[in-house]
Design brief:
Distance between the termini of chain A: 59 Å
Largest sheet of chain A: 7 strands, parallel
Strand order of the largest sheet of chain B: 9-8-7-10-6-1-4-5-11
Bound molecules: flavin-adenine dinucleotide, adenosine monophosphate
Distance between the termini of chain B: 66 Å
Number of strands of chain A: 18
Strand content of chain A: 25-35%
Number of helices of chain A: 8
Shape of chain A: globular
Structural class of chain B: alpha/beta
Largest sheet of chain B: 9 strands, mixed
Shape of chain B: globular
Oligomer: heterodimer
Chain lengths: 339, 289
Amino acid sequence: MNNVCVYCEFEEGRIQDVSFELLTKGRSLANQLNCKLEALVLGEGLAGIENEISKYGVDTVYIADDKRLYPYTTLPHTAVAVGLFKETKPQIVLMGATSIGRDLGPRISSSLTSGLTADCTNLEIGEYEDKKAGRTYEHLLYQIRPAFGGNIVATIVNPDNRPQMATVREGVMKKEIISETHKAKVIRPDINQYLREEDLVVKIIERQVESSKINLKNSSVIIAGGYGVGSKENFNLLYELAHTLGAEVGASRAAVDAGFTDKERQIGQTGITVRPKLYIACGISGQIQHIAGMQDSAMVISINNDANAPINKLADYVIQGNLENIIPKMIRYYKKNIK
Amino acid sequence: MYKIIVLAKQVPDTRNVGKDAMKADGTVNRAALPAIFNPEDLNALELALEIKDRYPGTRITLLTMGPVRAAEILREGMYRGADAGVLLTDKAFAGSDTLATSYALSCAIRKIGEFDLILAGRQAIDGDTAQVGPQVAEKLGIPQITYAEEIISLVEKTIRVKRRLERGFELVECPLPVLITAHSTAPECRPRNAKRLMKYKRATTLSERHSASDDYLASHLEKSYLAITEWCAKDVNSDLVQLGLGGSPTKVRQVENIVFQAKESKVLTAGDADIEWLMQELITQHTIG
Ligand SMILES: Cc1cc2nc3c(=O)[nH]c(=O)nc-3n(C[C@H](O)[C@H](O)[C@H](O)COP(=O)(O)OP(=O)(O)OC[C@H]3O[C@@H](n4cnc5c(N)ncnc54)[C@H](O)[C@@H]3O)c2cc1C
Ligand SMILES: Nc1ncnc2c1ncn2[C@@H]1O[C@H](COP(=O)(O)O)[C@@H](O)[C@H]1O
């Protein structure tokens, strides 16, 4: 009762990374709150899934393996999650800010009349003083997120309603295996007590989901291109540099919106969060929403023809000039000096 | 012939935040941001209009909750093809989070009465929460289809929709009534129609008419379509406890300005010597290679 629960997303035969990241965060929150960490997995073909999840320090995993639960549709997942939460009464529920989590989260929160904060960039435990009511709440979940287009950060709390719900984007939290040998207790609830015939009205006719080929989050070197790259053709320079250095290519939203590269490469508040050893920003001005996704990079190089570009303030090295000239030189002098 | 309700919100244009958007004390200067029709709500309106193109006689009602000036987007929607507008406005709604907002909207939808389809935007750009659509659907006890990119077919009481997912798409089928949220990749909304602009230019809400001249009001008495419906919390039979700040489970504890730690940076030129030096430096540090 009153534990921390993570809804684990199951897609294409595996639990999504964002769920492992949340389990890691959930473990630390549960330690602070002195409660248990629970996981909920709904899907089909889940044999052995508990072994994957246990490693993240989960105490109890609820598994429902049923063909009505895969692929994901809103109503059956809501019915099972809501039914279960009414019994287990978690104090905190976390889910990924993914296509699935952002479809399911609000539906569950409405059904349980509980508060939900989308796209949190940090979660902490703390107290809250309601000055008007003259009351202080302890051990609340601080749901910290950018607001107003990313220009401010707000800390949201849910003093009275439970569970306190939050979604978090992939890459924002770090995943960390607690113990390879840890074994979670497995509970397999009978979902027929929650599912009704009406929950099955939405039919999936066709579905095409690819697993990501781009592995930005785990790259130690990222070459990120912005609007200043100028064209799709010029992005080839970045791929070439990335290929030479064994790096991955990322982008700003302006570059994605301009069609220079794919949405999957977008770094920032509404994209992915990265923490590479080296981040090379090419033709990126460094607006707050972009910086939100790369500020934890160990080293930053900015290539920009504007000496006053805001990103330069965050950079260890600023190369002033046109990226069209600079990138080929970087490739040349890397090849010349390596080994 | 279908009855469609489109949910639309007037939002500050956070996409073009200028330097004066933040006040010196770190709060948002709302006055410096223009108020616009939430972009994905225009996609939602377009999906509704496409249905109306295919099934003439379809009736589109735009519903918005907000301050009196939010009637601007109702008129905007009428210029583009919506048949009627409803403004839900009351001090009791102030400070509502998404849950209290969806409760108020669901009460207004019940008051509007029959509907086959509700269309909303995926998310409003002031908060990017993407919660109100699914929450309204839950409150009304109807299914939802989020991130719609295209309505593939609508035959009698069955709709087929293409959904945009992060890494792919999905084609789903569902019986009406259903709530659909539109993704930004859905067709862009058609522009204003000149004839409709003339027709609805003077459409106003009761609050707006309070401050209008007599001959202006006379033109209204003749043309009932110029009256935009305006409802308060009581009109839609809502329970005050579930509205506004009090009805919102989420509270804002604190708002902070963002400050980034500036670094001491080394400035290099694009010259060969500088670039070669940097690449050697990175290799010796084992940052690359
Ligand atoms: C709610 C919200 C969410 C957002 N989320 C994100 C997000 O997740 N990620 C994101 O990136 N943005 C996001 N944005 C957008 C963000 O505000 C900026 O618009 C965007 O990051 C700008 O991209 P940019 O730096 O590539 O383009 P610009 O700001 O146009 O900068 C281009 C830069 O290139 C330089 N340049 C031009 N030509 C050359 C050349 N030949 N050689 C070298 N340098 C050159 C210029 O000096 C300039 O500094 C978001 C905005 C909002 C409102
Ligand atoms: N005050 C409102 N009035 C009408 N519709 C709204 C309101 N708030 C949100 N919506 C609808 O719900 C969608 C999602 O909003 P949000 O959850 O705020 O991101 C919007 O795109 C609108 O279609």
